[in-house]
Amino acid sequence: MDNQERNFMDLSQIPWGEVKNHAYDVVVLPWGAIEPHNFHLPYMTDCILSYEIAKDSAKKAFEKSKTKSMVIPPVYFGAQNPGQWNKPFCIHTRIETQKAILTDIVSSLHGQGFRKLVIVNGHGGNSFKPLIRDLAVTYPDFYIVSVDWFGFIPTEGYFDEKPDEHAGEQETSVMLHYHPELVDMNEAGDGKVNPVKLKSLQNKTGWVPRNWDEVTTDTGIGNPKKSSATKGKIYAEKVTESISELLTELKYYTI
Ligand SMILES: [Zn+2]
Q1: What separation in Å is there between the alpha carbon of 31 and the centre of ligand 1?
Q2: Which of 25, 30, 56, 199 has the highest local Cβ count within 10 Å?
Q3: Residue 192 Cα, ligand 1 centroid: separation in angstroms?
Q4: Model-level pTM?
Q5: Close Cβ partners of 63 (under 8 Å, ≥ 6 residues apart)
């Protein structure tokens, strides 16, 4: 990778001497979780994938439109359901903590003159909307966009299994594309999902956080067995193409 390109991708690889000479258009913040992912994916899956998706998106935006993005290191701390946070090393992060982290990031970036931030979220339990609404009051000239990389392109036509939520075919395929060395398909459980007990909740009359111990025995939700690196590559290409379009549009957007 040439020196110029890497300046617009990944802060973990770049010294200040290279950073300080550029005016960046957009800051990209990957955000994940620390939680079990069936028996075949690592705890850090949501951080690793949001980070890779963010870097590929920034790279494409630079190639296409010379958009100067900077991907800052991922935040690891996600919001967890009951039945997950009782597992060893799974860390539940309260909304107050997430808000404190995001507020500190925004106030630092704002003070440095940045005005556009894209959160690339890799964890279904994270919800940034209320935080972004509050921060828009405090920092009306700071624009924050939240993207769930796994959620804005329907999986139909890309993956076969339903449901496909957690450590299932979609997430496993994308991990096989980026980091096959971290996937052990021989260990994968079938991600079978038991319905929640109350009928009204099955019918979606109301909502509770599902208790993972009730709905799954291997912590997965969705069968990963049909996963492949090829499926993951095709889907990740589509996702990163769209996010790179967003970064390009933000470059030219006046707040
Ligand atoms: Zn995940």
Answers
A1: 11
A2: 30
A3: 16
A4: 0.96
A5: 5
96 φ/ψ angles, rounded to the nearest 5 degrees: -60, -40
CA of 180 to the centre of ligand 1 (A): 15
What does DSSP assign to residue 11?
A: G
Contacts of 243 by beta carbon, 8 Å cutoff, 6+ apart: 53, 54, 57, 61, 118, 120, 147, 149
What separation in Å is there between the alpha carbon of 113 and the centre of ligand 1? 33
Distance 170 CA to ligand 1 centre (A): 10
Domains of the chain: 3-252 (3.40.50.10310)
pLDDT tens figures, 101-146: 999 999 999 999 999 999 999 999 999 999 999 999 999 999 999 9
3-state secondary structure of 130: helix
Q: pLDDT by residue (tens digit) across 187-205?
A: 999 999 999 999 999 999 9
Å from CA of 138 to ligand 1 middle: 31
- C-alpha of residue 123 to centroid of ligand 1, in Å: 6
DSSP state of 86: T
Q: Give the distance from CA 29 to its chain's centroid.
A: 9
